[in-house]
Structure prediction request, 358 residues.
Amino acid sequence: MVLLDNYIRNTILVSMLVVISMLTTLDIIFSLLDQMADTDEYFSALNAVTFVFLTTPTAVYEMIPFGALGGALIGLGVISSNNELVVMQSAGVSVFRIVLSVLKPTLLVMLLSLMIGEFLSPPLEQYAQSNKAIQQSGASSISPERGVWQRVDNEFIHINAIAPEGIQLYGVSRYVINDEGQVSLTSFAESAKYIEKDRNSYWELESVRESIFRGAEITARQYSRQDWNISLSPELLSVLLVDPDEHSISGLYSFAEYFEDQGLDGDVYLMAFWKKLLQPLATLALVILASSAVFGPLRQVTVGSRIVCSLGIALIFTISQRMLEPASLLYGFNPLLAVISPIFLCGVFGIYLLRRVR
Prediction:
């Protein structure tokens, strides 16, 4: 049985790595084309290549569940095409014992996924997004296609770019609204730095251009430096650097708690937390479903048919998650339920098909 385990493990593991590599390569090509379309006088082709290189771990992390699915289908399919599955079963090896051998390399892939998603991908993604935003911001006050908006009390704030850790801002536009709902002050600062001294924290704005509105009168002022006291912490700004799905698992849980403490809606980050935490379980469920398909309807089909089947399963799984996630946010049911439902259905359906084969 040890030789059998090693043979199945090596075949499945190689197939998974090949599929993951192919999917990642395609993603890198399309990402590079997409980034090249964003090049301008500030964001060069070299910057685009660097951005794609830094975000490659994120691409690998996102492709791992579907790479495991395709690898299991193709690897087991190769074994089945050589009639080796028939020989194994004729020798008294049960279907579930063979599937257990398939799941062993899957556990290695799941561990790799956790390591990339928790430690490697988030800091590189944050650094890449921050650098791109800084390079593209130039000296413009507001770019509607990039940057982030944030409201704090009666101020609407647009930030062109945020440095890693959120302690340095670039291109800060402020709009202060009075009690009558009218703009009373507009301001643009080329940069802002977070200052913390003796439990007193504030932002120091640099190269500030300010306009004050009093009825029909407009007063313009300029400052080389200006203190800005506002409850806008670097922790919150660092969250806004990247999409929720690109944060670490531990970071997402902290962000969800932080938003709730601030009286803000943190369901988006809670959703991303459950999605990333349960990704290994999703990988496991997809591999079980793939294994059941090879023992059942895909036992004698070609490799091309298996590839098409794996793409179909991945598409259905992704669409199910993408539909349930916004539905959870819209109708207010538990984000955990939205994330785990497709995983549960895949696992249960796969086990049901395996029991029928048995």
Remarks:
- The CA atoms of residues 140 and 150 lie 18 Å apart.
